[in-house]
Amino acid sequence: MEETLKNAQDMGMNVRAIAVTNPGNPTGHVLSREEIEDIIILAYENGLVILADEVNQDAIYTDVPFISFRKVLIEMGDPFNKLVELVSFNSTANAVTGECGLKGGYMDFINFDKEVAEVLHKLKSMEECAATVG
Fold first, then answer.
1. pTM of this prediction?
2. Helix, strand, coil shares, percent, the chain, to 5
3. Segments of the chain with pLDDT less than 50
4. Per-residue confidence (pLDDT) for residue 29, from 0 to 100
5. Contact 89, 105 (CB under 8 A)
6. How many domains does the chain have?
């Protein structure tokens, strides 16, 4: 992962975030605590925002227990739990209906500047509309 980031930077790319799906869909692969910590350290060292898609917590096909990025980040303590910006995506309906287009979800913003969080809230509020079946 570090090598991929370095290669992108060597090509002149300004990498700002890392997107992670945990558990994986459709494989059900789950990241270990150590793997999550490695990603958090990488984000800390490179000033990256972590975008953690954690929607499929109920679709696990392994004995590795699911641990959220939020939990690991908080438990890692200083400086990580105060400086690493994390967006955790989750669902209120994925395990209930599971039908495409009929899901409700939320995002949890951790360690974001207050003004940035307000702008993101405003942007999401502007695009909300009544859910309809296509």
1. 0.80
2. 35, 15, 50
3. none
4. 85
5. yes
6. 1
